[in-house]
Amino acid sequence: MELADLHLHTVHSDGTSTPEEVVKRAKLANLKAISITDHDAVSGINAAMAVAEELGIEVIPGVELSVTYQGKDIHILGYFINYKDKKFLDYLELFKIGRIRRVEKIIAQLNRRGLSIRVESVLAKAGFGVVGRPHIAEVLVEEGYVTSYEEAFQKYLGDQGPIFAEKYPLSPEEGIALIQSIGGVSVLAHPGCYNQDGIIPELAKKGLDGIETVPPPNFLGDPQHYTRMAQRYHLLESGGSDYHGERGGGAPIGMRAIPYNFVEKLKQRASGR
Ligand code: AMP
Ligand code: FE
Ligand code: FE
Ligand code: ZN
Fold first, then answer.
1. Most buried among 13, 102, 144, 224, using CB within 10 Å?
2. Domain 3-83+169-271 has CATH 3.20.20.140
3. pTM of the predicted model over 0.85
4. pLDDT tens figures, 20-52
5. Minimum-distance ligand to the CA of 76?
6. Share of the chain above pLDDT 70, in %
């Protein structure tokens, strides 16, 4: 069966592989198609497409937007987006600046707790990529304030707190509309992470096109659960590894892959926009 991995991060956000490396690894994993879905960034797509053309693998332009729903951080993937759209790039610039301001606020809170890490060290970790909590976590490990990346999230940075600061405020409706306004298809990322399935019908009402339905490797529940949710609410299906390279958080490229016919359905939806 021909397979696709539609959830991959690169150094353009919080992954550790370059777009070129991601494409090469995807080719080795025998994938027919992939999507580069960096957090609030599309700057890795051109490089990935150039290598992909040489290697004969399809790269779908993608993005993973952060939106806020009832105070929670929710991720919405966009596929087949017109990633060169000027208005969209202006939005990404706002998100990028919002993320820097947020890092400053988080670090101020950490400093008050006696964890004296510097904003500059965290920004340096992100390099030219979009900065996020993973970069803060890595500096906390390096400076010896925690013993692991996971511990940094458990003790300080995770969605359960205690440290919190908002990024650029964007509602799910706005995120979905933004993706659709540039010809894209909107998909709720890792629905199992939010501990509230009610979000799925809520977002379906707001125009969401699909959800990721492939469970993570260590998932203990019913593996068909989100496939059934997708059917129930007439949503398209997607999935992917959420690969982050050396950094924690995802799986190796090609794990949680989807059959290529899911890609065709997503493409069909996009072609109508
Ligand atoms: P941000 O984009 O700054 O909100 O950071 C979110 C990213 O942090 C996610 O995409 C994951 O890569 C990572 N992340 C969030 N929570 C955890 C966690 N509990 N353990 C490991 N990584 C996490
Ligand atoms: Fe991430
Ligand atoms: Fe995500
Ligand atoms: Zn992701």
1. 13
2. yes
3. yes
4. 999 999 999 999 999 999 999 999 999 999 999
5. 3
6. 100
Residue 156: CB within 6 Å of ligand 1? Answer: no
- Residue 39 Cα to ligand 4 midpoint, Å, equals 7
Residue in 133, 167, 246 to alter for ligand 1 test, most ligand atoms within 8 A of Cβ: 133
Domain covering 92-157, topology: DNA polymerase; domain 1 (1.10.150)
Atom of ligand 1 nearest to the CA of 136: 3
Please work out whether the CB of residue 153 comes within 6 Å of at least one atom of ligand 1: yes
Q: How confident is the model at residue 15 (pLDDT cuts 50, 70, 90)?
A: very high
d(CA 60, CA 266): 11
The number of the ligand nearest the C-alpha atom of 241 reads 4
Phi first, then psi: what are they for 163, rounded to 5°? -95, 130
